[in-house]
Structure formats: C-alpha cells, structure tokens
C-alpha cells in the first residue's frame, strides 16, 4: 500500500477514539473509570487472542507488559485522573503535547532526526487544540496537570517503543498481546480501588461493546499497523484527529455550540496534521520526489 493509504487507515483510529467521550458520558455508568478501562481492554484482548491463536513467546513477555502499561493501563488511568480534575479542553491540550514528546523520544530511542517542520507542526497542533477546546474559565489543578502530562508521556513512550520493538507477528496479534496485558494490569487495581459495578443495562453493554471491539480492538490494530509503517512523528500528529472528532460529535449528536474560535482551532489542527505528514516524510522519499521533477520538465 502507498504511504497515503497507510496514513488514512491509521488516522481512522484517533478519529474513532474521538467518540470515547460521547459514549462514556451517554452510555456508561459514572464513577468506575478504572473498571471501565479494564472492561474495555481485557475482553477485547482475549477475543483477539482467540481469533489470532498467537501467544507472545516468553522472551517477549516483559516487553509486552511494558507496552501494555504505557499504551493502555498507565495511559488510561492517568487520562481518567486528568479528565476528573481538569476541564476537558485543558486535559486534551496537555494530551496533544504527545506529538512533541514522540519527536524527542524518537530521537533518543530510534535515532530519528528532529526536523524543524515537524516541531512547528506539533506546536501548531497544540495551539489548534487549545483554541478548539479551552474555554475562558478553564482552571488548572496541579495533580490534574501532572496526570495529563504523564498520560501524554506514557502514550508517547508506548508509540515509540512499539516502533522499536516489532515482533514477527501481525498487527492484530501485537494488539491482542498489549490489550490483554493492559487489561490484566488494570483488573486487580479496579477490584481494589473501586466498588462493585451495578447491574449493567443494555445501553451500558452496547457502550462497552463499542469501546472494546471498535474503540480498542479494531482501532488499535490500525494504530499499531501504522506505527510499524509510518514515521513516529507522523503517527503522533494523527492523534490530534481525536479532539476534532469529539467536538464534531458533540455538535451533531448533543447539540453543543461551535464558536468561530473553535472552528478556527479545528482548521489549525487539521492543517497541522497535514503539515506533520509532509514534515515527517522520510528523507529518501523527499529525494525521489526532487529527482523526479527535473525529469518531468525534461520530458
């Protein structure tokens, strides 16, 4: 497949993740964040393990649990803490710093060069998310800010290490391993820290099915597939599609208002995502494009 196709398929994942807020607030019982995270990860991971029939070898268990922690257990736990203690816009803006963190981590762990265009696109994306989501009455809580930054760093580390550690299996199997590991970490924590769930309604079950099968199993398979094929900086910029989708769904499904400033923020985010793909394009691909132009003129 072409790089453009890989980018579009990978972008589907964060675009669908944007529905998480709507589904969580409208379909799931409130007050059970870690339990909901465990129920989102573990059943989906076990189902994928049954479908793929591929267990991680013993030598990979340490890496799998570390990745499952970064990409799911630690990330989702910190995400919920930030969401509870900060306005949603502030939490999402802190999360968008992930793109900058990926650029720095990829330099240290993968030797990827830091490109000025990629940094500029990441900064523009953060500004766009802030315009899209932060209101004038936003308040800052130190614990919430620390959790938001920690969640962004966790996902950034998981993205870069998922690129560094590529097992010889399909993206679906790699997703199954990590989801199961993340769920196994979250489940005992939920049992210790949170009360027992009330009886679940049909709406609750439908929400969990959506978040587990679509919002976790399918989308993370696309995400890890993209991580293996696309540059880490380019992949991380695609994550900014999530807040745009969330705002659009709130506008369409919940009748929430959409101001001019928010519209401007959405345009800036989309532009930064596009610019980030170009700025993070491999040097070899840029060289080929440059070589083709003189030949086209000569023809």
Automatic annotation (TrEMBL):
Main subcellular location of this protein, as a coarse class: membrane
Superkingdom: Bacteria
Cellular localization per UniProt: Membrane
Residue stretches spanning the membrane: 32-52, 64-84, 90-110, 117-136, 142-162, 174-193, 205-223, 235-254, 260-276
GO cellular component: membrane
Membrane topology: Multi-pass membrane protein
Residue span, EamA domain: 7-133, 144-274
Keywords: Membrane, Transmembrane, Transmembrane helix
Pfam families, sorted: EamA
Family per record: Belongs to the EamA transporter family.
Protein's name in the database: Probable blue pigment (Indigoidine) exporter
Organism placement in taxonomy: Bacteria, Pseudomonadati, Pseudomonadota, Alphaproteobacteria, Rhodobacterales
């Amino acid at each position: 497949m072409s790089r453009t196709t890989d980018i579009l398929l990978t972008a589907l994942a964060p675009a669908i993740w944007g529905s998480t807020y709507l589904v969580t607030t409208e379909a799931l019982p409130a007050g059970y964040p870690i339990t909901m995270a465990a129920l989102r990860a573990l059943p989906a991971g076990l189902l994928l393990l049954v479908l793929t029939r591929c267990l991680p070898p013993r030598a990979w268990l340490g890496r799998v649990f570390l990745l499952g922690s970064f990409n799911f257990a630690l990330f989702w736990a910190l995400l919920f803490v930030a969401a509870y203690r900060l306005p949603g816009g502030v939490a999402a803006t802190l999360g968008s710093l992930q793109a900058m963190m990926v650029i720095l981590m990829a330099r240290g762990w993968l030797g990827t060069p830091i490109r000025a265009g990629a940094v500029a696109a990441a900064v523009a994306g953060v500004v766009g998310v802030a315009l899209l989501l932060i209101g004038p009455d936003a308040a800052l809580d130190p614990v919430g800010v620390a959790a938001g930054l920690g969640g962004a760093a966790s996902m950034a580390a998981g993205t870069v290490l998922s690129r560094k550690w590529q097992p010889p299996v399909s993206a679906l199997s790699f997703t199954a391993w990590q989801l199961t590991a993340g769920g196994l970490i979250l489940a005992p924590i939920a049992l210790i820290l949170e009360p027992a769930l009330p009886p679940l309604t049909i709406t609750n079950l439908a929400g969990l099915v959506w978040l587990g099968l679509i919002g976790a199993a399918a989308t993370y398979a696309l995400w890890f597939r993209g991580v293996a094929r696309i540059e880490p900086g380019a992949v991380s910029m695609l994550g900014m599609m999530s807040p745009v989708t969330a705002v659009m769904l709130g506008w369409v499904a919940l009748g929430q208002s959409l101001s001019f400033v928010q519209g401007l923020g959405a345009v800036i985010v989309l532009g930064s995502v596009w610019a980030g793909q170009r700025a993070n394009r491999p040097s070899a691909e840029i060289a080929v494009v440059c070589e083709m132009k003189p030949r086209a003129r000569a023809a």
